[in-house]
Give the backbone structure.
Amino acid sequence: MSVVRLFLLGFFLTTGFLVKGQSNMPPILDFASLEPYLHKSNDTTYVVNFWATWCKPCVEELPYFEKVNTDFASEKVKVLLVSMDFKNQIEKKLIPFIEEEKISSEVLVLHAPNANEWIDKVDERWTGALPATIVYRNDQKIFHGEQFENYQQLNNLIKSLN
Amino acid sequence: MKNLKFTSLLAMSLVLVLFSFMPDKGVYEIGDKVEDFKLKGVDDQWVSLSEYMGEEGVILVFTCNTCPYAQLYEDRLIELHNTFSSQGFPVLAVNPNDPNMKPGDSFDAMKDRNAEKNFPYPYLMDTEQKVFPQYGATRTPEIFLLDKNMTLQYTGAIDDNPQDPSSVGTEYVADAINAIKAGKTPDPTKTKAIGCGIKVKKEQG
């Protein structure tokens, strides 16, 4: 019996560890796979931020997005952080960053080289400069093509759609 | 009295008509002739656009030291210059970033980078940040291709694959230059690319 228990314990610890290891690896998507995240039609407000660990203004405003998760915990608001970190930097830079900063928002990596083909599909007002954020709920959409000056600015955008 | 009213009305409409013909103060669009500018380069020499440009035009690029996308394109800019300067289209690089926001893009840091890379083209600093807004530039790197009349012919990306030069499908700048040389309009005239937002000096106070 104790051997079985030990085995089970070992089994759960191992799978638990494996699952944890996998969850730290953000999915790498091409644009076609990312696109559905930009057009969900339900009663949730989506906050989609394009960023990278090497982008200083992006990193500076990340705490604002994290704060959205807590402040709107009881409401239907979902934050998605779309990282533009280069493929060869994901394990070296992105994953350690997510762990160190304890990022709780969902992180995806967009790997889509020909940006000219998809930037307008995110928003025609976007020039391609990082950071950029869209806040949308069904057909209502706000585009913010620069760094947020403070948390309140982001908070107001979200509230204007809720 | 009636005449005076009429005259002033006429004068006012004349002013309105005149204003409508005034040059647009907005950012340059494709087909616009650009104004000259003069900025200091990493060799401490001042370079003016009109004096520097080649016989056929110039590949003006807003770029910087620190942006990973700008770094990815450094060697390709050198290559563009080496290929096209002899054909009348040299590269002219301008760093638009405010060094207070991004110390790695200071004038001294630009000099260091130039010493490392030995850029074959001038690397200037838009110290007062008055040039890049005229072009409506928002990111680094961003290309503005001018023809010999200093008319904007193409703006946007260098090619369609920043991370992997060997997988480039379309060389936008090279294609645009070849179109101009053939007497054609570049197609496309505008492309978008991911880049680092230009670091604009924060308003004081």
